[in-house]
């Protein structure tokens, strides 16, 4: 099985740059899985995408995968490191899915991640540290992404938080929460 790494943090924190560093350090052929789609009419978005593209080494393969993430991961070769940037954009691309459909999509993704032989570095935004959005679609986005990040964090070999210009290895500093429904006890500092 490949290594699963989750890099999370707020906007403009450097999480993508840290994920790129980790992908380079893997020693494997890097496949950059871009979940964003370019919109030339939105100059600010277009500029963000260009900044990401210009940072990448030229020998990296880039795949545009706005929706079919599970299939892309399932096709990964063991000698590759996939850098998925970002889960927040992927969730936004699927936000119109009904809840039952979304739950199936997430279940398929998590099952696929557990079986992939390649290394995977996921980039995910932290969205739950602010106020609760005042509109239903904003709440759905926040809740879906937050839940997905939590579930991936449990599956990950290493979880990093990038904030305030620093990288924190949460796998060393913290303890994973038990899965929902686990009867196991939490092994925190007070145990």
Automatic annotation (TrEMBL):
Family (UniProt): Belongs to the CobU/CobP family.
A Gene Ontology molecular function term of the record: adenosylcobinamide kinase activity
Pfam families: CobU
Function: Catalyzes ATP-dependent phosphorylation of adenosylcobinamide and addition of GMP to adenosylcobinamide phosphate.
Protein name, UniProt field: Adenosylcobinamide kinase
Keyword Coiled coil: no
Gene behind this protein: cobU
Chemical reaction(s) catalysed: adenosylcob(III)inamide + GTP = adenosylcob(III)inamide phosphate + GDP + H(+); adenosylcob(III)inamide + ATP = adenosylcob(III)inamide phosphate + ADP + H(+); adenosylcob(III)inamide phosphate + GTP + H(+) = adenosylcob(III)inamide-GDP + diphosphate
Keywords: ATP-binding, Cobalamin biosynthesis, GTP-binding, Kinase, Nucleotide-binding, Nucleotidyltransferase, Transferase
CDD domains with a match to the protein in the record: CobU
Species in which this protein is naturally found: Nostoc favosum CHAB5714
